[in-house]
Amino acid sequence: MTLPEYGKEESEEALASLRLSEKIHIMGFTREARYITHCLAGTPELPPPQLLAHQRVFVNSWGTSRRKLTVSSRDGGHADNEILIPQYIGKSRNPWRPELEMPRLKHIDNLIISTADNAIIPALMRIRDSINQDTTICVITPGLGIVEYLNKVIFEDPSTRPNFILGYSSHSLQNDPRNPKDPYSLRIRKRGRLLLSGLSFPSETESGTSEVATWERVARRARTQHFLKLLATVPGLDTTNLPMAKLLRYKLPPMIFSSIADAISVALGFPYERLVNDRYAQRLWRELWEETIEIISALPELKSSPEVLSYFTGHNFATEVNRYLRAQRGPSPWAKMVRNGLPLPIQGLNGWFVKKAEELGLSSVHHRVMMNMIRAKEATRKEELKSDIPLYRSSYMLDTDYLENDEEVPRQLVHVVYTNK
């Protein structure tokens, strides 16, 4: 029997015979992670969701936030949902007896990851024993390529690695302006959708031999479908399951914008508006744009969807992105992240385009240069933070590298949401 396609009878039979859990864990404390947790907590048909936090401040502030997640809207409405105390999975405070603070977790069936790229590996290593081939992980991060990296670094054995779902959230969220210091308060600026696509499990190795039995592959597909169906039942998320090409139609635009506009803004110390008017910035923009579109045009994932491919290569897409750039003001949110010594998500953005270019035999010289410039700036800033130079002024930073609003948590990337053509 061959591996069944999505929705065929074999998958339904596997789904009916398996013991599937409805418990969902959420790793991370991004706005997306908190909003998803809030929606899950407001669904009485599902077990209470469990947040996994790698920073103690979120655990300690749970009680002072009335043990609830609050989401308000711009029209003044709000909803409070009670949640469980977050499980701490961060570094132990006792270096001599780290086992005393190891997370005491049972098996994790359904896991959502929405956290900073640099936190994913250490956090997963802390809960590695709770994850196996019966686990399904939904990854909602700004870039792409994290699944391949996790399989290379953590889940090396194909027979025991988890199943994966890629996600993209277009909900526009911010910290509640009325209570900006409360991490358990959010405001939803504009409702969007949670777009998901399950990754298929390879049936054969490069040598052509099957590593996993057919039944196991059917069971894996059934577990993935189960998680997708769970999320589709949650009010407020507006979940839609898509083929990979359709998901890339929505996930790639903000990736392209950030890997070009945010990268140039940080590397040159320019605000967004100067990217439009400075001829050298515009030359760099065109070089990065042409290189990026060439890589996207050769993606195997888009070969089966000519309408998606024509969207990216057409004139309208370039016009929309340029229009979006002209509407931006001030420095990139990445500038504040660099100033605070926080790592930027360039590995999943520019780094993903570099990796794809290598696989396709294409040039990625401009993305490589941009990554090197940004990493040099990050390294310089980290050295300054270790020195006696005051935080508000340093030798490398330009006037445009400063943000006036220190209370707003920086965005991971600039979200560009387009209507489907």
Automatic annotation (TrEMBL):
Domain Ketopantoate reductase C-terminal: 255-378
Gene Ontology cellular-component terms listed: mitochondrion
Entry keyword Disulfide bond: no
Pfam family name, one: ApbA_C
Record keywords: NADP, Oxidoreductase
InterPro entries, A to Z: 6-PGluconate_DH-like_C_sf, 6PGD_dom2, Ketopantoate_reductase, KPA_reductase
GO MF annotation: an example: NADP binding
PANTHER family on file: 2-DEHYDROPANTOATE 2-REDUCTASE, 2-DEHYDROPANTOATE 2-REDUCTASE-RELATED
Identification of the protein by name: Ketopantoate reductase C-terminal domain-containing protein
